[in-house]
Structure formats: C-alpha cells, structure tokens
Amino acid sequence: MGADIRGTPDGFIVKGPTKLEGAAVDVSGDHRIAMTLAVAALTAKGETMISGWESVAVSYPGFEQDLRHLVVP
Predict the structure, then answer these.
(1) CB of 30 within 8 A of CB of 11?
(2) In the chain, what are the domain boundaries?
(3) Which CA distances in Å does 5 have to 9, 49, 72?
(4) 9, 51, 55, 57: least CB-packed within 10 angstroms?
(5) pLDDT, tens digit, for every residue of 39-64?
C-alpha cells in the first residue's frame, strides 16, 4: 500500500504521513493486521483486497459490519 513500515521484535513502526494506494494484501492469518489494513484501506486511493480476512472472526466477528456502519451513510 506504500507505507514505510519497519518490523521490530515486538511489533512494527510506521513512519508517515504517506499517501496509501489500494493493493492486494495477505494478512497471513493475523486478525489484528487484517483489521489494521481494513482501516488503512479507507484512506487509500484505489481498491484493497485483503486475503485472509476471515481471521477477523477470531477476536471481532462483527468488525466488518461495524466498520461499514461507520463509513457508509
């Protein structure tokens, strides 16, 4: 998506601001990354496709519905 991200032993550091571009992304089964990328996609130019989206159900099964409620009038 174009972000400047550096991994650390216990997480990651994001430097910005950066204009994000829609992209095909794979969350590798990490529900936290899936939700983070969904929020990032809201500001990205173009479409973002999140592979592994079903992992969100691990911690927040209603996330997609709640997110849609917040952004769709």
Answers:
(1) no
(2) 22-71
(3) 13, 19, 29
(4) 9
(5) 999 999 999 999 999 999 999 999 99
